[in-house]
Specification:
Layout: E1 3-8, H1 13-22, E2 28-34, H2 43-46, E3 58-59, E4 70-73, H3 80-89, E5 93-96, H4 106-113, H5 120-125, E6 127-128, H6 131-139, E7 143-145, H7 149-164, E8 167-177, H8 192-195, E9 200-201, H9 209-221, E10 226-233, E11 240-248, H10 254-265, E12 271-273, H11 279-282, E13 288-294, E14 299-306, H12 310-324
Parallel strand pairs: 1-2, 1-4, 2-3, 4-5, 5-7, 6-7, 8-10, 12-13
Antiparallel strand pairs: 8-11, 9-10, 11-14, 13-14
Length: about 350
């Protein structure tokens, strides 16, 4: 069976990356992309890298395309909760990549996003879409909240140690991301003379991925976690590294830490435990790397590395879609990172 998939928000980096992956997916037809600014234009005339891979046109609304089986929402926050309820009423499964459905508590959503949530029922039912940690729940879901890019990189480093009981439920996350994580809209901070040869901390204490990291960490810590998150912009286009610092509960060996990670990821296709995680090893792919080291005293550092547009967004969404539709999990995603 071939599934017809539509994307709401087809012109941004996330939407275009979804298009790149889905147009070569063996079980999917890329059937619709929305764009108010580009409605009626050939997708390949805007995304020229898709020339020869799709001949569809942008539409203004997803409802302009009939008989869709699946819809991805790749818009700024606030749109998905307006669009998703009607889609689900039609029996269409959905993935939201915007953040509208990540927080389980509507009050937490309102605090961090500055907007009242209009679909509390969907918020309650949505499954947090990190497959390596929540695979069984994702398989039966009709609505999945795709995690944020920083959140994914931090959570994959945090979860094994919190789950193991080796560390206290507090963690400091030092995150560094390339400029594509900010999206397509130009800004003073993203102007090349400002960011091209600099490292810039930003949104310290206000970044919307902080409560997401804390929520997921709490699922494994067995206690209310204390999470401090400081994001930085670095002068690369793609990629994130999150360095996560913990306090061990007692004497811990490197072998115990290694075992904690291998227990969770040892058989995974897309997350690999390596001695020295590298952004260039995973860029362009749905693969992620994690690593960890014991520091002097009772400190442990763990690293999570990924491509913010693939495993941090569109690739992970396709991985979730595969699980939701009962397809092989690696379909459309089984290719390596660039390496250099």
């Amino acid at each position: 069976m071939t599934y017809k998939v539509g994307i709401i928000g087809g012109t941004g980096y996330t939407g275009s990356e979804l298009s790149r992956i889905l147009c070569r997916h063996p079980d999917v037809e890329l059937a619709a992309l929305t764009s108010r600014a580009n409605a009626g234009k050939k997708v390949s005339s805007v995304h020229t890298f898709l020339s020869g891979y799709t001949d569809i046109e942008f539409t203004e609304k997803i409802s302009d395309t009939k008989d869709l089986d699946f819809v991805m929402v790749a818009t700024p926050f606030g749109v998905a909760m307006d669009e998703v309820p009607a889609l689900r009423e039609q029996g269409i499964k959905c993935i939201d990549l915007s953040g509208d459905y990540r927080m389980k508590d509507p009050k937490v959503y309102e605090k961090w996003y500055g907007k009242e949530h209009t679909d509390p029922e969907g918020l309650k039912e949505a499954v947090f879409g990190l497959p390596e940690l929540f695979r069984d729940k994702i398989k039966g879901a009709s609505l999945v909240a795709n995690p944020g890019c920083y959140a994914t990189s931090a959570i994959i480093a945090i979860a094994p140690l919190m789950k193991s009981g080796l560390v206290h439920p507090d963690v400091f996350v030092d995150g560094k991301s390339g400029t594509s994580g900010a999206g397509m809209k130009p800004s003073e901070r993203l102007h090349h003379p400002v960011c091209g040869e600099s490292v810039i901390p930003y949104k310290v204490g206000t970044h919307r991925h902080q409560p997401e990291i804390a929520m997921a960490a709490g699922m494994f810590a067995g206690a209310e976690p204390d999470v401090a998150f400081v994001p930085h912009l670095i002068p690369i286009v793609r990629g994130i590294i999150s360095s996560c610092y913990f306090r061990a509960k007692g004497e811990v060996t490197q072998e115990e830490v290694d075992e904690a990670f291998l227990k969770v990821y040892g058989k995974e296709r897309f997350i690999h435990y390596v001695p020295e995680p590298s952004i260039r090893a995973v860029v362009g792919s749905n693969h992620a790397q994690v690593g960890s080291k014991i520091l002097d005293g009772n400190r442990i550092v763990a690293f999570g590395v990924l491509d913010n547009l693939v495993k941090g967004a569109s690739g992970q969404a396709v991985q979730n879609m595969n699980l939701m539709l009962g397809l092989p999990e690696a379909d459309g995603l089984d290719f390596p990172g660039l390496g250099v």
